[in-house]
Specification:
The chain is α+β, with helices and mostly antiparallel strands. The protein has 2 domains: 31-95 and 205-237; 100-194, no CATH class. The chain is built from 5 helices and 14 strands. It has helices spanning 32-46, 92-95, 126-132, 135-141, 221-237, and strands at residues 5-15, 18-30, 52-56, 61-65, 77-82, 85-91, 100-104, 114-121, 147-150, 152-156, 177-181, 201-203, 205-206, 213-218. The chain has a 6-stranded antiparallel sheet with strand order 3-4-5-6-14-13. A 4-stranded mixed sheet has the order 9-7-8-12, with no helix packed on it. α1 (32-46) runs parallel beside α5. It is globular and about 90 Å long.
Length: 239
């Protein structure tokens, strides 16, 4: 069970030197369990249960469409409780239209693209995100907070086919490209953790339990309300 922190306010009155308890106000201010309860309450308020059925296991709570079509039994929303946070997973094909995706071009078209990372910018913190963005990437995204961006540029340049690995058999047409990297320090990874003000965006990662889904970790009730309020409506409208 997750740790829970309570904010307790007690009021007393003193009569002839004797204190007497008047009232007690107890509020949960932190803890994964409380976030789970809040998430479920938000779904109920949005009418989510009218279209989706809930399945509870010891590891997660998952939601799939009631009477799904043949072969369409994926969860559209998954909650996984962790210490002091709630992990929320949503299918990647739903997330893609609403997040910033960063990738690297590779030298040869036959090589797979390299993923640098992805983030979701809180709509309420868009200006904070853009104003605090690492200067190296401000011109890259040009004021956008969603879309796919390649963090290295491509220019056309004819190169000698002898420069190519012998094991790769490609036509010369595939070889007229060179890569211009956005300057990063040697061995430095794409700076997802320090891309901008950390209060303005959430990092996305792959859900190892449900590989088709992207996952965020939320530890704030305010962020939870904004994230779930945004995507729960999108998920419902898609059905």
């Amino acid at each position: 069970m997750s740790k829970i922190i309570y904010d307790v306010i007690q009021r007393f009155e003193v009569d002839k030197g004797v204190p007497r308890l008047i009232s007690t106000n107890i509020q949960v201010i932190e803890g994964g369990e409380d976030l789970m309860s809040l998430a479920i309450s938000l779904l109920k308020e949005l009418g989510f249960y009218e279209k989706f059925e809930e399945k509870r296991t010891s590891q997660y709570i998952g939601y799939r469409v009631k009477k799904p079509g043949k072969g369409d039994k994926r969860y559209q929303l998954v909650f996984q409780e962790r210490k002091d946070s709630l992990f929320i997973s949503i299918p990647q094909d739903i997330l893609d239209e609403h997040i910033l995706n960063f990738k690297y071009w590779t030298l040869l078209e036959l090589e797979p693209e390299l993923i640098a990372g992805a983030v979701w910018v809180l709509p309420s913190k868009k200006e904070l995100f853009l104003n605090s963005l690492d200067a190296r990437f401000s011109t890259l995204i040009e004021g956008k907070t969603r879309g796919l961006f390649y963090i290295n540029k491509i220019t056309e340049r004819l190169i000698d086919s002898s420069d190519l690995p012998e094991k790769i058999n490609v036509s010369l047409a595939y070889c007229k490209r060179t890569i211009l990297q956005i300057p990063l320090k040697k061995n430095e990874k794409f700076p997802l953790e320090t891309l901008s003000n950390r209060d303005s965006y959430l990092l996305l990662s792959e859900d190892k339990l449900f590989p088709y889904a992207g996952q965020v970790s939320i530890s704030s009730s305010e962020v939870l309300e904004e994230f779930l309020g945004h995507f729960a409506k999108i998920i419902m409208e898609a059905q």
